[in-house]
Amino acid sequence: NLSAKLLLFIYFIAFLTLLSVILSLIQFDYAFIRYGIAFLSLSLFLFYFISIRYQNILLKVQETIEQSQYKKPLTEDEKKFIQQNLKDLMEEDFFLKNDLTLKELSEEIGVSVNQLSQYLNEHEKCNFNTYINRFRIEKACKLLSDSERSAISIAYEVGYNNYTTFQIAFKKIKGVSPNQYRKKIP
After folding, report:
1. 155-164: pLDDT as tens digits
2. What H or E segment, with its residue span, contains residue 166?
3. Less Cβ around it within 10 Å: N or C end of the chain?
Protein backbone atom coordinates (compact mmCIF):
# COMPACT_ATOMS: atom_id res chain seq x y z
CA ASN A 1 0.00 0.00 0.00
CA LEU A 2 2.82 2.38 0.93
CA SER A 3 4.78 1.47 -2.21
CA ALA A 4 1.70 2.16 -4.37
CA LYS A 5 1.30 5.59 -2.77
CA LEU A 6 4.99 6.31 -3.23
CA LEU A 7 4.84 5.26 -6.89
CA LEU A 8 1.79 7.45 -7.49
CA PHE A 9 3.52 10.37 -5.81
CA ILE A 10 6.66 9.88 -7.93
CA TYR A 11 4.52 9.87 -11.09
CA PHE A 12 2.92 13.13 -9.96
CA ILE A 13 6.32 14.74 -9.34
CA ALA A 14 7.56 13.44 -12.70
CA PHE A 15 4.50 14.96 -14.40
CA LEU A 16 5.10 18.36 -12.79
CA THR A 17 8.79 18.21 -13.72
CA LEU A 18 7.95 17.20 -17.30
CA LEU A 19 5.47 20.06 -17.52
CA SER A 20 8.17 22.44 -16.32
CA VAL A 21 10.62 21.13 -18.95
CA ILE A 22 8.04 21.38 -21.74
CA LEU A 23 7.25 24.95 -20.78
CA SER A 24 10.99 25.69 -20.86
CA LEU A 25 11.39 24.07 -24.31
CA ILE A 26 8.59 26.07 -25.89
CA GLN A 27 10.21 29.14 -24.36
CA PHE A 28 7.25 30.01 -22.24
CA ASP A 29 7.67 33.65 -21.30
CA TYR A 30 6.42 33.42 -17.74
CA ALA A 31 9.54 32.27 -15.92
CA PHE A 32 7.89 32.58 -12.53
CA ILE A 33 5.37 29.88 -13.56
CA ARG A 34 8.16 27.51 -14.65
CA TYR A 35 10.10 28.16 -11.46
CA GLY A 36 6.91 27.93 -9.44
CA ILE A 37 6.13 24.47 -10.82
CA ALA A 38 9.71 23.34 -10.19
CA PHE A 39 9.58 24.74 -6.64
CA LEU A 40 6.20 23.12 -6.04
CA SER A 41 7.53 19.78 -7.30
CA LEU A 42 10.56 19.97 -5.05
CA SER A 43 8.49 21.09 -2.06
CA LEU A 44 5.96 18.28 -2.46
CA PHE A 45 8.72 15.73 -2.85
CA LEU A 46 10.52 16.95 0.26
CA PHE A 47 7.30 17.10 2.29
CA TYR A 48 6.36 13.56 1.23
CA PHE A 49 9.87 12.25 1.95
CA ILE A 50 9.90 13.88 5.37
CA SER A 51 6.40 12.63 6.20
CA ILE A 52 7.41 9.04 5.31
CA ARG A 53 10.79 9.21 7.04
CA TYR A 54 9.58 10.99 10.17
CA GLN A 55 6.00 9.74 10.37
CA ASN A 56 6.10 9.28 14.16
CA ILE A 57 7.24 12.86 14.70
CA LEU A 58 4.44 14.22 12.50
CA LEU A 59 1.87 12.10 14.35
CA LYS A 60 3.19 13.38 17.67
CA VAL A 61 2.97 16.99 16.45
CA GLN A 62 -0.60 16.40 15.24
CA GLU A 63 -1.55 14.81 18.58
CA THR A 64 -0.03 17.72 20.51
CA ILE A 65 -1.93 20.25 18.40
CA GLU A 66 -5.21 18.38 18.91
CA GLN A 67 -4.67 18.09 22.66
CA SER A 68 -3.81 21.75 23.09
CA GLN A 69 -6.87 22.67 21.06
CA TYR A 70 -9.28 20.84 23.37
CA LYS A 71 -7.44 20.87 26.67
CA LYS A 72 -8.25 24.32 27.98
CA PRO A 73 -9.15 24.05 31.66
CA LEU A 74 -12.80 24.10 32.65
CA THR A 75 -13.86 27.16 34.58
CA GLU A 76 -15.41 26.77 38.02
CA ASP A 77 -18.79 27.76 36.57
CA GLU A 78 -18.50 25.12 33.85
CA LYS A 79 -17.58 22.46 36.41
CA LYS A 80 -20.54 23.34 38.63
CA PHE A 81 -22.89 23.47 35.63
CA ILE A 82 -21.80 20.04 34.38
CA GLN A 83 -21.81 18.54 37.88
CA GLN A 84 -25.33 19.76 38.65
CA ASN A 85 -26.78 18.72 35.30
CA LEU A 86 -25.13 15.30 35.49
CA LYS A 87 -26.53 14.82 38.98
CA ASP A 88 -30.02 15.82 37.85
CA LEU A 89 -29.94 13.53 34.81
CA MET A 90 -28.65 10.56 36.80
CA GLU A 91 -31.37 11.09 39.42
CA GLU A 92 -33.89 10.93 36.56
CA ASP A 93 -32.34 7.58 35.52
CA PHE A 94 -31.10 8.98 32.20
CA PHE A 95 -28.38 6.29 32.30
CA LEU A 96 -31.04 3.62 31.64
CA LYS A 97 -31.27 4.68 28.01
CA ASN A 98 -29.99 1.90 25.73
CA ASP A 99 -27.05 2.84 23.50
CA LEU A 100 -26.45 6.05 25.43
CA THR A 101 -23.47 7.91 23.98
CA LEU A 102 -21.19 10.63 25.26
CA LYS A 103 -22.50 12.86 22.47
CA GLU A 104 -26.14 12.34 23.53
CA LEU A 105 -25.34 13.05 27.17
CA SER A 106 -23.32 16.17 26.34
CA GLU A 107 -26.16 17.47 24.16
CA GLU A 108 -28.66 16.82 26.94
CA ILE A 109 -26.48 18.73 29.40
CA GLY A 110 -25.72 21.51 26.94
CA VAL A 111 -21.93 21.26 26.75
CA SER A 112 -19.48 20.00 24.15
CA VAL A 113 -18.38 16.37 24.01
CA ASN A 114 -14.85 17.49 24.88
CA GLN A 115 -15.97 19.44 27.94
CA LEU A 116 -18.00 16.53 29.30
CA SER A 117 -15.22 14.04 28.63
CA GLN A 118 -12.69 16.33 30.28
CA TYR A 119 -14.97 16.78 33.30
CA LEU A 120 -15.46 13.02 33.70
CA ASN A 121 -11.76 12.28 33.34
CA GLU A 122 -10.54 15.02 35.66
CA HIS A 123 -13.28 15.21 38.30
CA GLU A 124 -14.96 11.82 38.32
CA LYS A 125 -11.64 10.05 37.57
CA CYS A 126 -13.21 7.79 34.96
CA ASN A 127 -14.28 7.68 31.35
CA PHE A 128 -17.85 7.92 30.08
CA ASN A 129 -18.52 4.17 29.97
CA THR A 130 -17.28 3.59 33.50
CA TYR A 131 -19.32 6.54 34.78
CA ILE A 132 -22.55 5.25 33.22
CA ASN A 133 -21.83 1.66 34.24
CA ARG A 134 -21.54 2.70 37.90
CA PHE A 135 -25.09 4.03 37.89
CA ARG A 136 -26.44 1.08 35.94
CA ILE A 137 -24.84 -1.43 38.29
CA GLU A 138 -26.11 0.39 41.38
CA LYS A 139 -29.62 0.32 39.93
CA ALA A 140 -29.17 -3.38 39.12
CA CYS A 141 -28.10 -4.07 42.72
CA LYS A 142 -31.30 -2.46 44.01
CA LEU A 143 -33.39 -4.52 41.61
CA LEU A 144 -31.53 -7.72 42.50
CA SER A 145 -32.16 -7.02 46.20
CA ASP A 146 -35.80 -5.98 45.88
CA SER A 147 -37.16 -8.50 43.40
CA GLU A 148 -36.99 -12.07 42.27
CA ARG A 149 -36.65 -11.12 38.62
CA SER A 150 -33.93 -12.77 36.58
CA ALA A 151 -30.56 -11.09 36.25
CA ILE A 152 -31.03 -11.12 32.46
CA SER A 153 -34.24 -9.08 32.60
CA ILE A 154 -32.60 -6.68 35.05
CA ALA A 155 -29.62 -6.29 32.70
CA TYR A 156 -31.90 -5.14 29.90
CA GLU A 157 -33.87 -2.87 32.20
CA VAL A 158 -30.78 -1.01 33.39
CA GLY A 159 -29.63 -0.22 29.85
CA TYR A 160 -27.47 -3.12 28.72
CA ASN A 161 -28.04 -4.62 25.29
CA ASN A 162 -26.67 -8.03 26.19
CA TYR A 163 -26.23 -10.04 29.32
CA THR A 164 -22.52 -10.76 28.86
CA THR A 165 -21.65 -7.06 28.85
CA PHE A 166 -23.77 -6.63 31.97
CA GLN A 167 -22.00 -9.52 33.74
CA ILE A 168 -18.55 -8.16 32.87
CA ALA A 169 -19.41 -4.64 34.08
CA PHE A 170 -21.10 -5.98 37.23
CA LYS A 171 -18.13 -8.14 38.17
CA LYS A 172 -15.68 -5.32 37.44
CA ILE A 173 -17.54 -2.92 39.75
CA LYS A 174 -18.84 -5.27 42.46
CA GLY A 175 -16.22 -8.03 42.33
CA VAL A 176 -18.85 -10.78 41.98
CA SER A 177 -21.36 -11.87 39.35
CA PRO A 178 -24.99 -10.67 39.60
CA ASN A 179 -26.15 -14.10 40.79
CA GLN A 180 -23.40 -14.31 43.41
CA TYR A 181 -24.37 -10.82 44.58
CA ARG A 182 -27.99 -11.91 44.96
CA LYS A 183 -26.96 -14.98 46.98
CA LYS A 184 -25.02 -12.76 49.42
CA ILE A 185 -28.08 -10.62 50.15
CA PRO A 186 -29.49 -11.56 53.62
Report:
1. 999 999 999 9
2. helix 163-174
3. C
